[in-house]
Amino acid sequence: MNRRSEKMNRCCFLYYLLSGWLITACAAFSVTNGWVLHPSKVSRNRKCRRSCLLLSSSETEGRQQSTETTASAEVENNMAADAADVEKLLNSDTAAQFRVLTCSATSCAKKRSTLGLDEFATFSAFYTRASDTGVKVEETSCLGRCKQSPCVAIEHEDYEGTVSLEGMTPQEFSDRVFQNIVDENDAERVWSSVVSAVEVMAQQDGDEEEHM
User: Fold this and answer.
1) Are 87 and 197 in contact (CB under 8 A)?
2) What phi and psi values does residue 120 have, to the nearest 5 degrees?
3) Contact 94/159 with Cβ under 8 angstroms?
4) 181 — phi, psi (to 5°)?
5) How far, rounded to the nearest angstrom, does the alpha carbon of residue 178 sit from its chain's CA centroid?
6) Integer CA distances (angstroms), 66 to 59, 62, 73, 74, 76, in order
7) Of 200, 71, 181, residue with least CA distance to 125
């Protein structure tokens, strides 16, 4: 009976020992073959994914910045080209046919004084803009719209008297005189109308030459 118990105890001991060894071996095998993700592997995978995401974000931002820089450069180049074309046009024979007339009569002079402007403020505003162009700027006598002073008018050598230009208000267009020209914004509006008129006339001259 004692021998039997002894054998039984030995068998149980060997069984538990073998079971423990098998469990350890299986666990090691599963870890080695990727059946179980070790915490350190999970951490490495997350870091890898984060690195990939950061890399993708950096590349995307770089491409966006590159695209924006290219677009900005193209806009600047186009603006520079347009400015060069306008400058060339304003020094052409077409531009020399235009003349800006600033009123120096009593009503316009009085209005400038009331506004605290220099006596030659209106003339200077256009002389400065036209100094590097073929457009002429001159002072003139009353332009007939004293209540809307200071006034400015435009002449073209092919037309008698002052001319109406795109950019004028309906009243100005009817009177053929720019009115209430008191600050830089007003002067710029007049000058822009002159530049546009030069461009239109140059285009018409070009079309006529092509058909000759």
Assistant:
1) no
2) -105, 20
3) no
4) -90, 95
5) 31
6) 10, 6, 10, 12, 15
7) 181
Structure tokens at 104: 């120096």
Compute the chain's Rg from CA coordinates.
44
The alpha carbon dihedral of 40, 45, 51, 54 has a sign of negative
| Cα distance between residue 84 and residue 193, in whole Å | 18
Q: Quick one: which of 97, 99, 124 has its CA closest to 181?
A: 124
Residue 134 · residue 95 · CB < 8 Å: yes
Contact 190, 152 (CB under 8 A): yes
- Give buried/exposed letters for 185-198 (b at 16+ CB in 10 A, else e): ebbeebbebbbebb
The reported pLDDT for the residue numbered 172 is 97
Name the pTM for this structure. Answer: 0.62
Amino acid 189: pLDDT: 97
Kindly report the number of other CB atoms within 10 A of residue 151's CB atom. Answer: 28
User: Which regions in the chain score pLDDT beneath 50?
Assistant: 1, 27-55
pLDDT in tens, 48-92: 444 444 445 555 555 666 666 666 665 555 555 566 777 888 888
pLDDT of residue 70: 61
